[in-house]
Amino acid sequence: MPIKIPNNLPAVNILEKENIFAMDEDRAYSQDIRPLRILLLNLMPTKIVTETQLLRLLGNSPLQVEFDFVYTATYEPKNTPQEHLVKFYETFAAVKNRKYDGMIITGAPVEQIPFEEVSYWPELCEIMNWSRRNVYSTLHICWGAQAALYHHYGIPKYPLPQKLFGVFPHTVNIKEKMLFRGFDDVFYVPHSRHTEFRREDIEKVAGLCILSESTEAGVYAVVDKRYRHLFITGHSEYDPLTLKTEYDRDAAQGLPIHVPANYYPDDDPAKTPVVRWRSAANLLFSNWLNYYVYQGTPFDLDKLNDPGDVSGLYGDGI
């Protein structure tokens, strides 16, 4: 949350240079406050695990947030109890007449399948198109980011020689921007994927900006220059033992899998993994919720502005 300070206080300029978000009294008094409405499109097979991971991070904020959960009607989940889906989830048809402050589209274990061959691809495209007019800010994660960049901008994905698997160091390209305020010069993010999109393809699109990347893991964070869509390639939401679970599963099935990088002490799976990404994960999601959602979304969601209008954002956006 921002701090409220008197108009024209000299500390304002100092705080802004240190990336501390402050608002003057005039802006504070003009703000309307209500609970934020967030829609989670959960494409992961273990939906309870994924929703718990994301809610844990999004709950680490003083903001009041209300959640709706959806899954694709064109694919019936096989790893989540039906009673859980019936009780807590809706299909897109049930929510498409609503509007939301924010939306998260998760990853999915379908990255090695061509986009058009994914069983729910037409429905996902419909949802992504809908989000442009009915959601203020959408956060896309891993395959969700690849799918959105392909659908909206025609950016392809490429197979990797081997699975990118582990916890990798990242740097921030544009330190003064909002998404990475408070981050260290080097921070860590878990990755678990077989495909990637490439910097040169993103740079060809004038409407996109690369905010963060990794020498080993490639591009990590991309934002559209209208500030309404963010694309994250890693899994900052992962729990401490998520990579271990994936490694143990694949090893037990005899699949070709290497020990996740920078995860076990001495690369020994018998040892307890070292968690080095949780503080950055909490910052990432709280920054998105505060700067990209709360500070920009209209009080009356029926007045959601055109995606090209960024006048509601505080400061310079990105």
Automatic annotation (TrEMBL):
Question: What is the enzyme's class at the highest EC level?
Answer: transferase
Q: Where is the active site?
A: C142, H235, E237
Q: Describe its function.
A: Transfers an acetyl group from acetyl-CoA to L-homoserine, forming acetyl-L-homoserine.
The record ties this protein, via SUPFAM superfamilies, to: Class I glutamine amidotransferase-like
Q: Which reactions is this enzyme annotated as catalysing? A: L-homoserine + acetyl-CoA = O-acetyl-L-homoserine + CoA
Q: Which species?
A: Dendrosporobacter quercicolus
Its domain of life? Bacteria
Q: Name one Pfam family in it.
A: HTS
Q: What is its EC number?
A: 2.3.1.31
> What phylogenetic lineage does the species belong to?
Bacteria, Bacillati, Bacillota, Negativicutes, Selenomonadales
Which residue positions does UniProt flag as site: Important for acyl-CoA specificity?
Answer: E111
Pathway in which this enzyme or protein is active = Amino-acid biosynthesis; L-methionine biosynthesis via de novo pathway; O-acetyl-L-homoserine from L-homoserine: step 1/1
Q: Which family does the record assign?
A: Belongs to the MetA family.
Task: Pinpoint the site Important for substrate specificity.
Answer: S192
Q: Where in the cell is it found?
A: Cytoplasm
Under which name does UniProt file this protein?
Answer: Homoserine O-acetyltransferase
This protein's GO cellular component annotations are: cytoplasm
User: What InterPro entries has UniProt attached to this entry?
Assistant: Class_I_gatase-like (IPR029062), HST_MetA (IPR005697), MetA_family (IPR033752)
Sites binding substrate sit at: K163, S192, R249
Q: A Gene Ontology biological process annotation? A: L-methionine biosynthetic process from homoserine via O-succinyl-L-homoserine and cystathionine
Q: Which UniProt keywords apply?
A: Acyltransferase, Amino-acid biosynthesis, Cytoplasm, Methionine biosynthesis, Transferase
